[in-house]
């Protein structure tokens, strides 16, 4: 890929944007982020150099900086998750002197530009929806880590339960990912005296495994337990059995907004003061939540979730392009 990029290297005049994602385009969310990011970069007259960044991105970023030098106008990075190595990279030369933006995460203790979605608001709304459906015994499935994304989704779930008088049993918080482990954990909680009637999953990939395990355990969905998630990858959610209710992650728009805000900073159209830009999310209701028709907003299966204002500055694609 880089050979092709190097062909027109001499024609590039400080117009390169390094676009580094944590996975390749075979991952649905990353593919959409990449599509939105690259399209917006090209639209604004810049040249995207796309790559996959490893868990420790320092060596790859430094290699590309050495290769392209002062032709680099900005850097957009989607890390696997926040880590000290990335923080050190962004706060040291030469990277700290190049406009940059983090996609999908932000740092609570560092002043670094970031573009994320309303993870808290989306998971709060998804959990509240199951409560509105009459569910009373909740379980949460997913790792709670230092990632702002994972932390905020769990907090959205926890606050929705707390605000509505739902007590979640400690053993109903399950941080397993592999199907064998999930099977053991789900078998245990569904064998308990008061099994859950609602399962909230951190992301769609995990939810698909949960649905398979529940089917093997002969747990009827949604009759015995409703399932809801976060992501809304249509290729995954629609093919689930039953189709998966999930908070909608506007991945393509997030990539585009990140690109526009990075370039707006490069061109001096917005302040260089670091900000966390947050895109509102939606809720896409399908069969897995067992939703009655009168609980659908305006009779529709998809609606925008009110912005939670939990963190950062609300922004839309239209506002970023102005």
Describe this structure in words.
This protein has 322 residues and is of the alpha/beta class. The protein has two domains: 2-117 and 251-281 and 316-321, Rossmann fold (3-Layer(aba) Sandwich); 119-248 and 282-309, Response regulator (Rossmann fold, 3-Layer(aba) Sandwich). Helix content is 37%, strand content 18%. It contains eleven helices and 14 strands. The strands form two sheets. Strands 2-1-3-4-5-11-14 form a seven-stranded parallel sheet, with helices on both faces. A seven-stranded mixed sheet has the order 7-6-8-9-10-12-13, sandwiched between helices. α2 runs parallel beside α10 and α7 crosses α8 (204-216).
Helix-strand layout with pairing:
Elements: H1 2-7, E1 16-21, H2 28-43, E2 47-52, H3 58-68, E3 72-77, H4 84-90, E4 100-103, E5 114-117, H5 119-132, E6 138-141, H6 148-163, E7 173-174, H7 179-190, E8 198-201, H8 204-216, E9 226-231, H9 234-237, E10 245-248, H10 251-266, E11 276-279, E12 282-284, E13 302-304, E14 313-314, H11 317-321
Parallel strand pairs: 1-2, 1-3, 3-4, 4-5, 5-11, 6-7, 6-8, 8-9, 9-10, 11-14
Antiparallel strand pairs: 10-12, 12-13
